[in-house]
Amino acid sequence: MTNETGRFANVIVDISHEKLDRPFQYRIPDALMGELEVGMAVMIPFGRGDKRIRGYVMEITDRVDYDEAKLKEVDSIVKDGIGAQDDSIRLAWWIRENYGSTMIAALKTVLPVKKKIKQVVKKTIVCKVQTDVAAQKAEEFEAKHQKAKARLMRELAAHPVLPQTLITGKLNVAAQTIQALEKACLIEVQAEEVYRSALPGKLPVSGSKKQLSENQGRIVDSIAVDFSAGIRQTYLIHGVTGSGKTEVYMELIERVIAMGRQAIMLIPEIALTYQTLVRFYQRFGDRVSVMNSRLSAGERSDQYERAAKGDIDIMIGPRSALFAPFGRLGLVIMDEEHEGSYKSESMPKYHAREVAGELCRMKDASLVLGSATPSVETYYRAKKGEIRMYVLRERLAGGQLPKVYVEDLRSELKSGNRSIFSRRLHGLIDDRLEKGEQTMLFINRRGYAGFVSCRSCGHVMKCPHCDVSLSEHTDRYQKISRLVCHYCGYETAGVTSCPRCGSRYILGFRAGTQQIEELLHKEFPTARVLRMDADTTKNKDSYERILSQFADGDADILVGTQMIVKGHDFAKVTLVGILAADMSLHAGDYRAGERTFQLLTQAAGRAGRSALPGEVVIQTYQPEHYAVVHAASQDYEGFYEEEISYRDLMGYPPVAHMMAVLVLSEDALTGAEHARELAEQARRQYNDRRPVIIGPTEAMIGRINDIYRHIFYVKHREYQVLTGIKDALEQMIHARQWSADSVQFDFDPMNHY
Ligand code: ADP
Ligand code: ZN
Ligand code: ZN
Fold this sequence. Notes:
By secondary structure, the chain is of the alpha/beta class. The chain is built from 22 helices and 31 strands. Strands 12-13-11-14-15-10-16 form a seven-stranded parallel sheet, sandwiched between helices. The protein has a six-stranded mixed sheet with strand order 5-2-1-4-3-6, covered by helices on one side.
């Protein structure tokens, strides 16, 4: 944390009032000087008169933001003010410091529920008379043709306590009838406030607890022993999908709960909530809840409150579940820790893995990361000994690793095959259609950047300075194409022939799922095809619907983007085709190789999940690329070694760090000028330590919604140098009175701009 010896405190007042959700400055009285800390709850005078309200210290500073003579003094420190909320504010502060954003944005991030929404009232109808009296009353009503009253009394004679919803619903008894019977003292309506459930209606309850394998047991014991000895660490479980990681998570959670603590289970995507929830619910019942954006505001508010009260032990959800207000947090588990969705794409652009690390430090908790293809960051830290790693090698539920073919699209072209399907893939699809087995075809649309590659020799146009692919920008009217680097702005004219082999088959690479679906219909007329991509999954349940259709055998082939790669097991899928591995290889950023390796490995893992053996076809123009080679042989270590030496050589994360500074402006010239001045200011910082500045340049998407976007990157070995530069830029933005949201920071970005 920064300077805590300043004379002024910036305090945010009770944040449930939207309007007051900004810091107000107070003078720190002598008595509290040195006592006050960031995150503390304080009482402050607010508004006219003597009114004192509660607030939270956001910042302690010597910088005067307002007229000093008019500043009021902090009244006192709230003595019992330590609670989840103070922790959240500390965490928000940390996020603000490390990722750069306004405090309000950081606070909103850590407080996913800002307003308490009233609990729902559950009404129950209780019979006030003896069973025989109730039955007798029912007959009397019947005789008087008061059918509804009769129905209700008869039901109550059998079941003296009934939920009101059943009576008004299934029994079709009107509210007036209920009132009348209540007046007659035959029944009583009882009301009770209850929490909304975040769980879907009918979850299977019973499920057997697995006897852990020796390897699984060893991991659990080792981490649990650490935990009871008070050792808190970050652990990595490196194990292929199906190797039993989730069983390990559940056992660990059970142990930690037994020690009186709570756990957060992070999953990369909302779409995976249900399958995770089912397994956890079978084991932990109502002590589990979920928190995600698909819940209603009331459901979210209730889960937040239940978590704060300690009514639940486990919170499952995507990255925002990290902010469940657990008072006794002991364990955070992050499944598929390499997934890009753990990084927030809006301000503050935090990475949930790092925030989880900080949260665990604050709460004295341990962090367990799991993945079949760990992020290069995590593996790097594991190699340095900062993270303790465990390996699970075998699949437990049977099924061997599939056979992988790498098909060279250059030789397909040479022998006259211009189809999007290699001959091998074509033949294997035919074979599966004959056998009645299923095929998944996968295309990675991440490579929208339009890299330019030679279809004869595989040569890819690259930036001479940044060693990432250049992207093609075509002027639609003049038909002139330029090749642009999105890191440094390097530009060169488009090419019409390959600089390496002279072929004229050099072009921007584009292909979509819809196009593939059409081709499939043409080439395999009898095949039943399902498509899953952003277009076909716009509706709320379409994702689950398509997957369950495929699982039920309603289609032979499922075509999709990366969203089909994750999480689901289809017993009858024995063939996986990756149509263009190159799309993600050349996305134009330093993570392209890593992302490709992960996608190929995961996609390959979809084949042969049951007794039937599986085959995988990877189609590519660059069969010799290390990401392809190591994915084909399922060799993580081999991939990592090559990847890390590239990162080291080029000064990319995790060996060094990178900060993207995105400048947004309504006016292109102003934006360019601000970006230039900021980059200049960045260059002046830490002169002795030589930060590298790349850019500024226009962003890849130069304008969105009429807002112009300019970008520059700062690279340095030390993260602190980058946050220092960020602080200097923030001060400059403040001094120039530029709008705080006009500049966005992104540390170790997951994508390029
Ligand atoms: P992961 O999380 O690594 O994908 P899971 O925990 O989901 O792996 O396990 C994969 C499959 O193996 C599941 O069907 C699970 O029920 C089963 N499984 C896991 N551990 C065991 C075990 N010790 N004994 C038997 N089956 C197990
Ligand atoms: Zn060529
Ligand atoms: Zn470049």
